[in-house]
Structure formats: C-alpha cells, structure tokens
Amino acid sequence: MNLNGNTLALLPEGILTIAGVVVMMAEPMLKPGASRKALGWLAIFATALAGAASIVQLRVVDQSGRIMAFSNSIQVDPFSIFFHLLIASVVIVTLLASLDYFEGHADHAGEYFALVLFGSVGMMLMTCSVELLMVFVGLEISSISTYILAGFRKGNARGVESSVKYFLLGSFATAFFLYGIAMAFGATGSTSIAAIAQKLGTTATPTLALLALGMIVIGLGFKVSAAPFHVWTPDVYQGAPAPIVGLMSTAPKAAAFAVLLRITFAGFAPFEHRWASLMWVIAALSMTVGNLGALKQTNVKRMLAYSSIAHAGYLLAAFTALPQNGIAAAAFYTAAYSAMNVGAFVVITQITGYVEHTRTIEDFTGVALRRPWLGALLTFFLLSLIGIPFTGGFFGKFYVFSAVIGGGHWLLAVVGLLNSGVACFYYLRLLVAMYARHPHESGNDKAVYTKLTPAAGLALAACAAGTLILGMMPGRVLNLANRGAAAVLAEPVVEQDPTAVLMDDTRR
Amino acid sequence: MDHSILSLIVLTPLVGALVLALLPDKGKTMQWGALIVTLLTFLFTLHLPFRYQDGLPAGSFQFVQDSSWIPNPAIRYHVGVDALGMWLVVLTGFLAPLGVLASWTKIDSRKKTFYVLFLLQQVAMLGLFVALDLIIYYAFWEMTLVPMTILIATFGRTKDRRKAAIKYFVYAFVPSALLLVGMLWLYFKTGTFQLPDLAKAAAEHHISGNGPALWLCSLAFLVAFAVKVPIFPLHGWLKDAICEAPTAAVMVLAGKTGLYSILRFSFAIFPEQSHRVAPLMIALGAIGIVFGSLIAITRKDMKELAAYSTLGHLSFVTLGIFTFTISGLDGGIYQILNHGISGGALFLLLGFLYERYGTYDMRDLGGLAAQLPWMVTLYVVTTLSLIGLPMLNSFVGEFLILSGSMQANNPHHILWTVMATTGVILSAGYMLLMIQRVFYGSLGVVSERTTPHDLNFREHVAMWPLVALMLLMGVASPYWMKTLDANGVSMATVPSPVLPVVATKSPLTPSFVDPELKAGALHEKATPAPEGRRY
User: How high is the ipTM of this complex?
Assistant: First the structure.
C-alpha cells in the first residue's frame, strides 16, 4: 500500500467516520420496526477494518519509525497503535453484545451504532494526537457521543438523569481541560506536547505551567472518574444501558489515560517530581473512596461503578513509577481492565436484559446455578477484577505495583494491595450470591431470561479469551506496551518551520 | 516420565474438571467421572515415592521441571518436590477419591457444580505443593480459595453459608495481598522468584542488608500462612467454614497448605527471622492447643467440636516445627500427614452420621452403638488415632513434637511443653465424651425415630484405607521418617550469623542433653564420651 503519510496516520479514524455516516444515512431508509442488525454488523465490520488499519500502521512504524502527520499534530507510534487496537476491540465486543439488545425495544438502534462509531473516532484521535487542541477535539467528539449513549433508553427516567448529569458535569470538566490548555499556552507559548516539554525547563512562569497541569489533570481526572472527581460515576452507570456502561467504563477511560500519560510523562516531564506526588494522592484516594463506596452498594451497576473508580486509582498509581515501567504498566492495566470489565458488563447485559429486571445483588441470587456458563464467566471476570492469578487482572495489578515498588513507593503498593483486599469483599458478595441457592428454590420469578445469541456468545468468548490470555501469556501485549512506553519517552519532533515538515511529508 | 510427572499430576484433575463440565449432569455420570479422575491422579502421585531418591543433599528437589514462561518479570514454570512436598501430594491424591465417595449420595443436586469445583480445588492444592516459583505458587495459593468459597456458598449447610464463604475468602485474601507485596519486594532485591535461588541468597545473607524491611517481609509471609493454617488467634474463619462446608471440602480445608507454606517458604527464605519469631510461635502453638481443646469440650455440635479439635491438632504442628529441633520438625511434618488422615477420617464419619440423622447435635443422638456396630468401631479407632494412642499414627507425631519442644532452645520450653501435654489429655477428654454421648447411653430424640442403617459398602470402601494407614503409619513410621528426616535436619540447622562472626556458639543450635542423641540426629560421628564419666 502506498499511502500518503497524512492519510495513513488517520486511516482508522477515517474508516470509522465513513462507516458512521453510512450507518446514519441508512437508518432512515429502513422501515420502522425492522431489524437494525445489518447496520450493527456494518459497524462491527468497519471497526474490525479500523483495527486492521492500525495493524498496517504498526508494520509501517516497524519499518520506518513513527509517523508524524498534519504538521506534527498527529503522531502514530506503538503507543497510539496499542490504544487504537484496544479501543477497536472494546468497541467490537460492545457492538456484538448489543446487537440483539435493542430487538423489540427501540427503533433507533441505527443511531446507537453510529454514535458508538463516532465516539470511537474521538477516542482514537485522542490517543494519537500530540497537539493539545487536537486532543481536545478528540475528547469532545468522544464525550458528546457518550453523553447521548448514556441516555439511550429514553423511556427510563434514570437513563435521562444519567445523560443529563453526565453532560453537565462532563462539559464542566472539558472546560477545565480547555482552560488548562490555554494556561499551558500562556506559560510555554505552545500547545504541542513536545514543544511544551522543551520550553518548560526555561519557562519564566512555572507556577502558571503547574496550574495548567492541574487543570488538565482535573479535566482528565473527571473522564477517568478518579476521586475526587468521581461523583458522577455511580448515577451515570446506574442509568445507562449495560453494554454502554461496559464501553464507557473502559474505552474513553483508556483514551483519557493515554492522553494523561502523554501529557505528564512526555509534556510535563521536567515537573515530574511535582505531579508524581499529586498522582500518589489521587491514586490512593481513588482506590480507597472507590472500594469503600462499593462496599455499601446493593445495585450491581452502582457497585461496579465504584469498582471502576477504584481501578482508576490502581491505574493512577502507575504514574508514580519510573517512566518506562509506569507507562507500560498503565497501558497493560487498561488492556486487562477493559477485557474483564467489558466482559462483566456483557454478562450483566445478558442476565438483566434491556428492561433490567435484575438490579440488586439479591436479584442475582442463584443465577450461576440456573445459568452455569454465564455464571462461570461472570465469576471468572469478577475473580479477575479481584486480581486472582491466571487472569488479566492479576498481571495488571502485578505490573502496576511492581512498577510502583520499583519507583520506591512501597507504601502506595501496600495501600493498593490492602485496597484490593477490601475490594474482594464486595465482588465476593455478588459472586457468592450467584452461587447461593435461592430461598424459593423452584422459581425465581423476576428472572426473564433471554437466550444467549451467537453474537453475544462471541463477545463473551472474546472477553474471556482476552482476560485469560493476558493472565497466562501477557508477553506479547506487554511487549507492545513497553514499545509504546519507549515511544512516548522518545525524543520528540519539534516543529521548526513549516517547509521542513512539508519536505518530511513528501519524503515519506 | 520423571521429568513431567508433576505436570501430569496437576493437569489430570484440571482436564477432568473440563470434561465433567461438558458432560451432561445425568444419573451418576458426575460421581463416576470424578472418581475415575481422582483415582487416576492418585495413581500418578504414587509414582513419586517409587522413584524418589533418598539421601540427596538437603534443599534439593526432585522431579524438577523448569522452563521459562514469562520473560519479564522472570516467571518460570518451575515445579519440583522434596520429601515434604511429595508426601503432601500423595496425601492430597489419596484423600480425593475418598472425598468423592463421601459425597456420592449426599450431593444430589447441582452435582456438576460440586464435582467440577472439587476437582479444581484438587488442581489448586496439588499445584501449590509442587510450585517452586513464587508467582506460580501464589497463583495456586489464591486459586485454593475460589472453589472452596463457591462450594461453601452453594453447598453450605445452614443459611449462614454466604457469610461463612465470604469470611473464609476475606480472611485469607487480605493477608495474601501483603504476601504479594513481600514477593515483589524480594524480586526487586534479588531479581528472582525461584525458591532455590532465594533460599541460597538467604543462606548467604544476600537478600538485603535492610534488616527492618526483611523483617516486615518475613512477617508478611508468616501472617498470610498463619491465617491459612490457622494459628491461634487467627482462626476466626475456621469454625464457620468447617461447619458449613460439605464433607469432601472440609477434608482439605485446613492445615496442610498453610503449614506446608511456612515450612517451605518462611523457613527457607527467612531462616533467621523464623528463628527469632519462634518463641512467640511456640507460645501461640501451646496456647492454641489448650484453647482449642477447652472450647471443644464445651461444644454440643459435633462439627464445631471437630473444628476446634482441628485447631488444637494444628497448633501441635505449629509448636513442633517452631522448636527448630530435629525431632520437633520431623514430628511436626509427620503430624501434618497424620492430621490429614485422621482428621479426614473424622470428618468422613461425621458426614456419614449426618446423612443418616440430619443433625450434628450430640444431644439429639445417643445410644447408637448397639444399632451401628461398624460405625462405632470406626469412630473409636479414629478417636484413638486422634488422641494419640501408641501404635497409631498420631502417637509418633505427638511424641516427637513434645520431645522436640522439651529440647527447644526457648526460655520457657518446659512451661509450653507442659501446657501442650495437657492438650493431649484434653483431646482425649472431648473425643471420648463425644463417643460416649453419641453412641452410648439412652437413645436420643432423633436416633429414636430414625431407622438405623449401618455403614454400606461404599462407606466401608471410603473408611478402611484410612484406618489401615492409621495403623501402618503408627507401626512403620520409619518408612516415612527416613525421607522426611532430610527436611527436618536441614530446617533445624542454624542460619549462620550475619555479620562479623563472634566466636561463641550461636544460641540457636538445636540442643540435646545427650551428645550421642545429637550426633545421631545430625548424622555426625559421635565424639566418644571420656572414659569413666557420663555427661
């Protein structure tokens, strides 16, 4: 393939945008009430194609180093490709799991597929931009889609609440992020991450730069639901449709973490001693708040919302480690967390259905005994979330905390692992409930079971295989994560004058 | 064959569990499937003692398989056993078919869930005993929790089962999180997760010069293991878990894994710290014996009684191994095996009784001796074994432990030995009281209205191997001792002191009153006593 550098750099995003538009245009042509599955399959196919495009990028990067495009505002390197592949996988699984979710409930499923595609365009764009304004554009694209998706069950009051809450607080947070960018520009005269890193050492206004970083951390902290910016999470997760919660607790978070990793480790590297301690505090706080909050929950989705806050804390702990190890560990953790958390939500989607008959932990009593395979899978994902070995969750925690100990913060490691001890309690409540005999043995009455469709089965198999492979053979993924870390830390390309860039492009 | 036998032993129940999960849950498919798989596993474990080579230097492992798994961090698939690991593997393999037989009719619904989890539990335990890489070991260690938790939650006896299941898991999981921190710290200091390398580094004081950190690390290991044993006062989960769990699960619930881990990991990686903490552990052991026995006497529920008696018996082992005398260690290790057999037998018998009468309350039973002659015979034999009658297995272990504790280099060794010895008497007390209440006297409320059935063929098949072993291990203990002794001797050896060696004798040498006894135990040539003088 002989592609122009710019085209190649945004090939996955381009494919997804086109597919999204096609889905949008096809939607009104279908009869109301007709199945929208074909559109879903189209979306899945397009996402797979986007993933393939990322693999093509990887091969090009293997041969000739990273690809810089659009006046050095886009950088395709192993780091961005890692997250592209991760986001594509999450989106494919989510789409597979929700293919039959809307059957007989909603006519506008086509929009759903298109929104998921547009959202993933934004997330992917975030991971490969090295220009803060470009990051902001990506962030907005992904956020707006997610706001709508959160309220997709229009008839459900909680769904509407979820959407509005997410939108209001989310816009506020993006404003913080934008404000941070403006301040960074004020302090360094640039919005490019590489240029910021270069000029930060000589800036006359370090306080302003620090403030800028603070604002950016607030904005992204909201997106990854780190404490103390987490308050929206439980309400939003409770109201949003289960497959969407699976998506929005993983893919946008992964993208936001990617941005945060780039901004901190590459952009604000000279200030590392300052923000590392900030991250220490946020990490410890998120873990503790998340886990303690989850202990009290009876609603399963709320519980998993708090659990996702805690997991954001574990991830943030990696920021205190030495750069190479920390970035690799964080990237690996996002992959492991995505596999297990999406898996858990796919199972919950299957068990609860569109209308959500089973909401509380008590409603899950005996589920695993009546539906052994779904139960076994949810057990597996919960064990992975606890961090039992032979699962991705274990190696995720393992790498993060060994990186943290390697960085000399053994106290944070103790806090983190004690937290995972607390965490096992609430995961276990659900697990044990699933395996406990129901008091009215013969019939649990609220349970209306949907049959496991092949598509959902495929999604579950993918999540289980992902979690298992990350737990048994983490080598390849870790390898790519390590290469990604090296790419983030590599000597940046700083724009000198426009013609040089042009020549650079033509050469490639 | 020798190369991959351990992998075969671990994989057999795993494959068996997968096959059972796919088979339809009809008729007796599950029982027969589980029985075949467990018997096959047991057959494979028997390969080990036949091919085991005696007399290799201490700390060497056999049947080793060591291949790289994950390059960074360096996690290797490294398995191997010495005498201690080997006999525990054999014991685990031996008890499993008996557990299946015990559950044959008792588990009559959700058989698939039960037997699949039971086999997974086997995988975890067998893997734990053979792993020599810390992370692999940790993986199996955590894996032992999961099937057990689900078994308790699903097949628990009373409505408190969920609480008991969660309690069991949380109790063991929280300290094991700290264990993981300890392992990571070791890795950063030494760059390896391999037990033999770590033991070597520890012997040469190469792990870390940072004394306090090493101490914390050793405590993280010890506490995690002590909870799993359990050692007094960390036994909070034991009673609930034992009362709830089904018979086959109870048989593997306590003891083996925790004690094995202390012997294998704490003693090898932290020899000095273990010696230092020994006085405390001896005290806890002695207190645990008396505490467990005293509580056991007051129980009306046989399962609770058995739970506290378990605490008492395991405390005996704790006492023995922390004396760091050869006889204490040999006896402690031997007693782990004994407890697996006699304790297993007791729980099997309790299960049989419960299947017939539906209660563990001794007040509801009584006068069964006339109706169930075989049952009472086996109860009495098991009781005698548990309370340490000479000729039966526990006598050997308890005797060695007590003599080791008497020799221990510990300021109050006589006090603790005396306390521990009262435990022997107390255990005779509560066990015989139980026999008396259940089998003699007038018929109880429940035993009156239930038609008696003595042991059937299946139950006989489950019990007699245990009884035979009790006798065999009581009269032919040298067969086991000669292999286990290598472990005892190597662990009793004193760690060389750290820094500038002071020319005095280290206070931690196992002390013997009789120089000839010492020489014999340490396999040294005795220095002939001067003529005309005894000691």
Answer: 0.83
